[in-house]
Amino acid sequence: xxxxxxxxxxxxxxxxxxxxxxxxxxxxxxxxxxxxxxxxxxxxxxxxxxxxxxxxxxxxxxxxxxxxxxxxxxxxxxxxxxxxxxxxxxxxxxxxxxxxxxxxxxxxxxxxxxxxxxxxxxxxxxxxxxxxxxxxxxxxxxxxxxxxxxxxxxxxxxxxxxxxxxxxxxxxxxxxxxxxxxxxxxxxxxxxxxxxxxxxxxxxxxxxxxxxxxxxxxxxxxxxxxxxxxxxxxxxxxxxxxxxxxxxxxx
Amino acid sequence: xxxxxxxxxxxxxxxxxxxxxxxxxxxxxxxxxxxxxxxxxxxxxxxxxxxxxxxxxxxxxxxxxxxxxxxxxxxxxxxxxxxxxxxxxxxxxxxxxxxxxxxxxxxxxxxxxxxxxxxxxxxxxxxxxxxxxxxxxxxxxxxxxxxxxxxxxxxxxxxxxxxxxxxxxxxxxxxxxxxxxxxxxxxxxxxxxxxxxxxxxxxxxxxxxxxxxxxxxxxxxxxxxxxxxxxxxxxxxxxxxxxxxxxxxxxxxxxxxxxxxxxxxxxxx
Lengths: 251, 269
Ligand SMILES: Nc1ncnc2c1ncn2[C@@H]1O[C@H](COP(=O)(O)OP(=O)(O)OP(=O)(O)O)[C@@H](O)[C@H]1O
Ligand SMILES: [Mg+2]
Description:
The structure holds 2 protein chains of 2 kinds. By secondary structure, chain A is mainly α. Chain A has helices at residues 4-44, 48-59, 62-71, 78-89, 95-105, 113-131, 156-166, 169-181, 185-198, 203-215, 219-233, 236-247. Chain A is rod-shaped. Chain B is of the alpha/beta class. Chain B has 2 domains: 7-18 and 181-264; 26-178, 3-Layer(aba) Sandwich (Rossmann fold), CATH 3.40.50. Chain B contains 12 helices and 5 strands. Chain B has helices spanning 7-12, 26-40, 56-67, 83-95, 105-115, 133-144, 159-169, 183-196, 200-203, 208-218, 222-242, 254-264; strands at residues 46-50, 73-76, 122-125, 149-155, 174-178. In chain B, strand 3 (122-125), helix 6 (133-144) and strand 4 form a beta-alpha-beta unit. The chains are: A mainly alpha, B alpha/beta. At the A-B interface, helix 1, helix 7 and helix 8 of A face helix 6, helix 7, helix 10, helix 11 and helix 12 of B. Bound molecules: adenosine-5'-triphosphate and magnesium ion. Residues 15-17, 21-23, 25, 28, 50, 52-58, 155, 222-223, 226 of chain B line the site of adenosine-5'-triphosphate. Adenosine-5'-triphosphate (ATP) is lined by residues 15-17, 21-23, 25, 28, 50, 52-58, 155, 222-223, 226 of chain B.
């Protein structure tokens, strides 16, 4: 039966395991997000002055808007205050004074826009895998090796595996029959027993079960089983098998 | 306590093949219709193939159930692999003939000819991959002689079985491939099964999010779905008895679906 406590535990473990890579990923991503602008600043210093100027003059509207968000965290408090000030002073003309105030505050900030624009695709590509946590990690479905049906030799083990998987009594009977025909009576007995536990109304499985018992030398048990089954089912074939065992004609 | 809400749905999803439990799913009933049409055509062997758990045996049983009202149909759900036994059983069950001598193919065809039914009798063979190549060849000859029409199912697992399928195809035949269900079809399958058994409350618990997870876990395979839902409802049954306050009746809990999937091995944890 179900062991709920154990299942709960395994579920928790599974959840933690499936989230662990994301958490690791997320924290690496966060660190990168914070650190990247500075790494960029350092590496881009020599090139930047020319480019930034041009950038600023053409796209001046966009750049300052993005800036304060990331820039806030370190030591610089000034720009944000300017920002507030400009907001308060000029209600409608916010954009142009903004860029000018920022330009004045610190020379480094002129270089910032480039990394930021470049940064954007980076962060988004970092974020997308975080957004869709694949909850489901499905193991490959049924991979029981196929039966080489052209070779007349039968791979009975793969049929047994399938029987275990599907609990299909027909397959079970096939296996029980196979083992009986090949003289593996204890195997035949085992499979007949398994089939009976799935469905105890199948004539043939009782018959194979009893016949295997006889072959294994346990004649009395076989007769007892058959009598019991006949009383339950009135099976003709069970009766005739019992007859032949009692008369000693069963081989 | 037999008034449990979940014991009945649980037992609905036992993995058994019974034509009375057949559920009409659009794509499947389409195939079923074409299967029934093919059976009426002369000189055709019909092959049903597909991965494990896609409903081949179910379709075959359904066909058996429906056809046997009108004509002579015989079903082998357990293969008889011994050639002599196979022919003997056929001769006896179809043509009412039980000869003492060894049953050769020629002898068998003589017997068939002597009886000559108006409608060619139909024999359904499940699990055809278990028959030997040489027996399959005999089956083909019997079919060519119009003594019997065969419908067989072939269990496809990987490349080798596709080769086997090709081997069959060159000799026949009409073939029909069964597939796993799409998310939509799986929903229909589950809902119809539950509604047929009057489990309305439980049927209403399946929302789109639940179905998405179930389809992802089972890949739309009917057998895997049966297993998953069987253990899911066993789980609900357990909570109902032991901790009913945890059950929410408006939707299935994703967590419990995952727990059931862990139990059945769909999720390894
Ligand atoms: N149309 C259907 N209606 C109701 N139940 C179905 C239907 N199709 C499949 N099933 C269910 O799916 C389960 C698996 O189907 P089935 O046993 O027919 O698969 P299969 O293709 O024969 O698999 P295998 O290759 O392993 O023999 C069945 O137990 C049955 O309950
Ligand atoms: Mg089958």
